Amino acid sequence: MRLMLQPPVTALSGTLSPGGTPSFVVRAGRQMCQSTAPPSPPAPSGPSPWRILFTRINQQRRQLSSTQISAWKQFAMQIPRGKLGTPYTVPWWSAFLEINALHLVQSGTFQNTPPAIRPTLIIDSILTLNYLPSPPFLFIKCSFSGEDPEVHRVKVSLWKGSSSKQRHPLRSELRWICGPTSSSIIPVHAPDSWWTFYNPVFTWSEDVWQALELTPISADGWPGRPYRFHLEQSAVS
Questions:
Q1: Could you say which of 57, 75, 192, 223 has the lowest number of CB atoms within 10 Å?
Q2: What phi, psi does 68 have (nearest 5°)?
């Protein structure tokens, strides 16, 4: 962009950030040219469903007794996770938040004591995926093993995707496939049955690598080892 200088402006110095609209202002007796960024879209009215959910759980967490907090601390020590190759223990309040997010959207009640039954369901593979873009539907068929699969549920999370095959999602980038609702957590039936999700939080586009995470959950809400699946949308049958 070229600027035509006219008196009283005789010289310009500095740079303008790209993407903005230049405008001239007078500050402290000096005439300046600044870049004005386009306005951001307005924020949605009211708090998000996730904020409402987490606020309710945190309010409940403050009402726990010392005995209940000790029980959650012991439970959190049984959920080791790895970060950059180094194992670490989940904080008790993080475990309380995760378990109660699962429990609250399914039953509408809080779980003040930690779960005692570990999940025995193991998701072995995703057999088939079908995705319909309009209206958006995702159909999943899995194979799994383990004891008493029918007492388990599965939480399905989705990634917005990347154009790079080497790019894999961080845990914080995964979102419940239908948001914080019971539609994201489904009961386990026979291995040949379909799991259907309407209007997932991220739509899929061609030539973009996507990822799914399927987490088995025991009868009393203990999440197990997640199964991750990385694929290109154009490869979906």
A1: 192
A2: -65, -40
